[in-house]
Amino acid sequence: MTAGEREYVEAHVHEALARDPRVNEPELQVSVVKDRVLVTGVVPTEERRAAVTEVVREQVPDLEVENRTTVARFPDAGGAEQLR
Amino acid sequence: MIHVAAVGDVHVGPDSAGVLRQQLATVPERADLLLIAGDLTKSGALEEAELAATELQGLAIQVVAVLGNHDHHSDRPAEIADVLRDVGVAVLEGDAIRIDTPSGSVGVAGVKGFGGGFAGANAAEFGEPEMKAFVRHSKERAEALEAALGSLDTDVRIALLHYAPVRETLQGEPPEIYPFLGSFLFGEAVDRAGADLVVHGHAHRGIEHGLTPGGVHVRNVAQTVIRQGYTVYGFDEARSGDRVSMIAGASGNVQRSAAPSDR
What we know:
The structure holds two protein chains of two kinds. By secondary structure, chain A is α/β, with parallel strands linked by helices. The longest helix of chain A has 17 residues, at 3-19. In chain A, the strands form two sheets. A three-stranded mixed β-sheet of chain A has the order 1-2-4, with helices on one face. In chain A, strands 3-5 form a two-stranded parallel ribbon. The termini of chain A are far apart. Chain A contains two helices and six strands. Chain A has a single domain, classed as Cation efflux protein, cytoplasmic domain (Alpha-Beta Plaits). Chain B is an alpha/beta fold. Chain B has a single domain (2-235), classed as Purple Acid Phosphatase, chain A, domain 2 (4-Layer Sandwich). Chain B has helices at 19-23, 27-30, 46-56, 69-72, 77-85, 129-150, 178-181, 184-193, 223-226; strands at residues 2-7, 33-37, 62-66, 90-91, 95-101, 104-110, 156-160, 197-200, 209-211, 217-220, 231-235, 245-246. In chain B, helix 3 runs parallel beside helix 5 and helix 6 (129-150) runs parallel beside helix 8 (184-193). The longest helix of chain B has 22 residues, at 129-150. Chain B is globular, with a radius of gyration of 17 Å. The two termini of chain B are 21 Å apart. The A-B interface holds A 21, 24-25, 27, 41-42, 44-48, 72, 74-84 and B 1, 3, 5, 10-11, 13, 15-16, 19, 23, 26-27, 30, 42-43, 70, 73, 156, 196-197, 204-205, 217, 223-224, 227-236, 239, 241-252, 254.
């Protein structure tokens, strides 16, 4: 795969992750390294994380998927920031 | 002291039922109102809005929200807003709400906002109809924000947006996508009308703190930026002493930082 082809794959996978109703995450980052697609970013649930792998596999079945997204786990709020 | 809680980009979907309610459980004891800076839903489906409404229903403080681009994806923003209004959420788009707290009054003016970029690298209303429509939408929404902010005569005035009004809070995002993350037109509208704070979301990889060119505090409260369920901003009743000081960090340590004068 040439560098140009990798760019196109990255763009189309990014679009698929935004549009596919199982994921709908336009904020994820996609990069292709050799024959692997790396996806990074934060998703809200384990289900959406699993769906990322599914969608990428369907989009580029010949490439290996490395799903490095993490599931958000947010603690309770800290102290207040005083603005005035 | 008036306390305002804020969060954005919670992206509620069928797989995340219960998560938001748990994240917001302590808000009523820590704040006088809660701002949600758009993207309440994953894809703007009515079912997702109903889930978000269930999560917010019964929260013992006023919730004020604007919709985000995710909430528009299924082309049903008006219905999404109605579902949220049915449980008492004030969904703003070119209008404002006044909330009276024991410590003073808070006014919130809200619009979703839109893109176009920032001064020096911004889109102009020129060329193809699609391009002109893109820029015109931002201009119209910025005018609506300015008018809504101008209608407020409260002790604290806040602009609530989904898209970013300044580029500072986008640091960490690829510069190539800045024009899709916000527009200077909203910062300009805030500076013209005046405000104590602008809250926005949308830029998941950005940073929390910024200022408009006119010196108004800007806070990006996308949940992946604040990295907590919500964040809280405090305002003294008095209008004097305009300075930022962190009174307690997320770790709970009491700190005092020298604060730049903001006006």
